[in-house]
Amino acid sequence: MTQDKTANRLRSRAWFDNPSNPDMTALYLERYLNFGLSLEELQSGRPIIGIAQTGSDLSPCNRHHLELAKRVREGIREAGGIAIEFPVHPIQETGKRPTAGLDRNLAYLGLVEILYGYPLDGVVLTIGCDKTTPACLMAAATVNIPAIALSVGPMLNGWFRGERTGSGTIVWKARELMATGEIDYQGFIKLVASSAPSTGYCNTMGTATTMNSLAEALGMQLPGSAAIPAPYRDRQEISYLTGKRIVDMVHEDLKPSDILTRENFINAIRVNSAIGGSTNAPIHLNALARHVGVELSIDDWQTYGEEIPLLVNLQPAGEYLGEDYYHAGGVPAVVNQLMTQGLIHEDAPTVNGHSIGDNCRGARIEDEKVIRPFDQPIVQHAGFRVLRGNLFDSAIMKLSVISPEFRERYLCNPGDPMAIEGVAVVFDGPEDYHARIDDPALAIDEHSVLFMRGAGPIGYPGGAEVVNMRAPDYLLKRGIHSLPCVGDGRQSGTSGSPSILNASPEAAAGGGLAILRTGDRVRLDLERGTADMLVPEEEIAERRRDLEAAGGYSYPAHQTPWQEIQRSFVSQFETGAVLENAVAYRQIAQGGVDG
Ligand code: FES
Ligand code: MG
Questions:
Q1: What's the Cα-to-Cα distance from 77 to each of 74, 241, 249, rounded to whole Å?
Q2: From 315's CA, which of 452, 519, 583, 592 has a CA 20 to 30 Å away?
Q3: How much distance in Å is there from the Cα of 443 to the middle of ligand 1?
Q4: Is 201 in the pocket of ligand 1 (CB under 6 A)?
Q5: Closest ligand 1 atom, CA of 61?
Q6: What's residue 179's pLDDT?
């Protein structure tokens, strides 16, 4: 029987059934018996399965996992395993100050310690809100015990006066309506709240829907599971099946290092373009690749992803929301469309033991308004363009969200249709931007290019989602909604602004943004992928000397111990904003530490 074969190599045996160390075995056993498990359960050679619980009252997006875990437990038990549930450090995208970005690496570290240091043979990763997904996958990659992800699922669709309102996305629109006087403050709050009608994560194609879709494209979730809305009965069912499956994965010794291959990352990059995925995806997938030891660069995103058309018609780039995405066929329908064009590595492995090709082949589109066939896309070239120049070594732009209004105003110079030249207006961090954006003294007009610096992983610890800056109220009233924005911070995946973001190195790490000044002319060439300040070389050298003499770009003091620790070890966005020292630790359940 598989169970007997497995029993001898279960790592939990070192705790619960180790005849060479009876004292410690007794101590471990007596304490885990303490909450009601029996000796028979702990010593029968059954896999001990962790449920890494990311839901809590502090993390409303993932809170439904507290319910779903009951069905996961039933699945684990049914398949012959023992469930042990434990908390993961909470990460709430919208609730954490100063940034939830700080907590991805903290939750990662905490989960690595738990998975490595406790008697767990496999783990169910409960994913959902933006950074809970990468944090859990990164930790599973580092430790490398059998792991399967379970999405909490999106909220139901939001509605207001007969129209869909998408979480996050509606805030940008509501803010504009309030600026033009169409709604008051009460109306603003009501409109925003309408977008979040149930438990679950953001119902738009923000970072949460993106990362949950990509976790499935990477092969780490059961096929078809990512898009199921949180309150649906199917969500309960897939939770049960996920619990059952992880026990089999322990018997099969199927680990993250077996699943997270470069082919799967390339598949995920292409799926990301086709779904209109968030600009946070490169940060998180590059981080995950580094922890699992797969080569992946920011250029891979352009090489493999840029040409892929946008097929999924979800807000902010499109019209629909999470429930519609599920009914239209979810990730398998998207993967199948890409497969028909030879754009998927079909042999790439997944957690159910079958290849992604076998899982998704023939998956139908059930509603072509929501998921388009490959030859009738919403827009072509939906991936990211990588830009470089004297402003930074790399930054990315999502070309697919450029609105017709923006295109007409900025991208129509005859002979040079994809270049923007303008005058820089520079903000140092989100507080500075909020304080000054409406100040007429800045004289922002349609020739201005807004810059946000001091918002990267070091400058605003964790990196702030603030690059997508709105135009000043006086321009909004004139019908000018979006100005070109550039910055070393991130952008909320729920925002549709055409921004150049994730600039690396950031100002706080000595990037070119640190010496940019308001009034400098800048040139952004989206065709050639360049981004430069049009400042003479000698002047640049002089500003560099001045910056050095001043001790570098200054950023706010640390407020917590973790901010200081993270700032000393974090890499730039281009390389995943990982804790640089953690990258050498790979497959540590098997005793591996590189270099
Ligand atoms: Fe948690 Fe959007 S804020 S998923
Ligand atoms: Mg976000």
A1: 5, 11, 14
A2: 452
A3: 35
A4: yes
A5: 1
A6: 87
- pLDDT tens sequence across 167-178: 988 988 898 889
User: What pLDDT, on a 0 to 100 scale, did the predictor assign at position 1?
Assistant: 42
CA 230–ligand 1 middle distance (angstroms): 13
The backbone torsions φ and ψ at residue 193, rounded to the nearest 5 degrees and listed phi first, read -65, -30
> So where are the chain's domains?
46-157+197-360, 160-192, 402-550, 563-590
* pLDDT above 50 (res 311): yes
List, as one string, the DSSP characters of 499-515.
EEEEEES-GGGT-GGGG
The mean-pLDDT minimum among 36-40, 210-214, 360-364 falls in 36-40
- Residue 50 reports pLDDT greater than 90: yes
Identity of residue 124: V
- Residue owning the nearest CA to atom 1 of ligand 1: 129
Taking the CA of 94 as reference, the closest ligand is: 1
DSSP class of 99: -
pLDDT at 398 over 90: no
The alpha carbon of 312 and the centre of ligand 1 are apart by a number of angstroms equal to 19
Question: What does the pLDDT average to over 74-96?
Answer: 97
331 lines ligand 1 (CB under 6 A): no
Global pTM reads 0.96
Which letter does DSSP use for residue 320 in this model? B
Write out the two tokens for 472.
Answer: 């000043």
Q: Is 94 in the pocket of ligand 1 (CB under 6 A)?
A: yes
pLDDT-derived band of residue 410, with 50, 70 and 90 as boundaries?
A: confident
Dist. CA 140–CA 588, nearest whole Å: 10
Strand locations in 4-76 (E): 48-53
* Distance (Å, whole) CA 30 – CA 445: 70
**Of residues 10 and 468, more confidently modeled:** 10
Please tell me the distance between residue 59's alpha carbon and the centre of ligand 1 in angstroms: 9
Atom from ligand 1 closest to the CA of residue 62? 1
Atom of ligand 1 minimally distant from the CA of 208: 4
What average pLDDT does the chain have? 94
| Residue 202 in contact with ligand 1 by CB distance below 6 A | yes
Whole-number percent of the chain with pLDDT over 70 = 98
Task: Determine the topology of domain 402-550 in CATH.
Answer: Glucose Oxidase; domain 1 (3.50.30)
With a 6 A CB cut-off, is 285 part of the ligand 1 pocket? no
Distance 55 CA to ligand 1 centre (A): 12
Quick check: CB of 127 below 6 Å from ligand 1? no
Question: What single-letter amino acid sits at 553?
Answer: Y
> Can you say whether the dihedral through the CA atoms of 199, 201, 204, 209 is positive or negative?
negative
Average pLDDT over residues 401-412: 83
The proportion of the chain whose per-residue pLDDT surpasses 90, expressed as a percent, equals 86
Residue 102, pLDDT above cutoff 70:
yes
Facing residues of 48 across strands?
82
CATH of the domain spanning 46-157+197-360: 3.40.50.2300
Q: Are 307 and 381 in contact (CB under 8 A)?
A: yes
Average of pLDDT values for 315-325?
94
Run of H or E including 16: helix 13-16
pLDDT band for position 497 (cuts 50, 70, 90) = low
Per DSSP, 465 falls in state B
CB of 61 closer than 6 angstroms to any ligand 1 atom: yes
The angle formed by the CA atoms of residues 515, 517 and 523, to the nearest 5 degrees, is 90
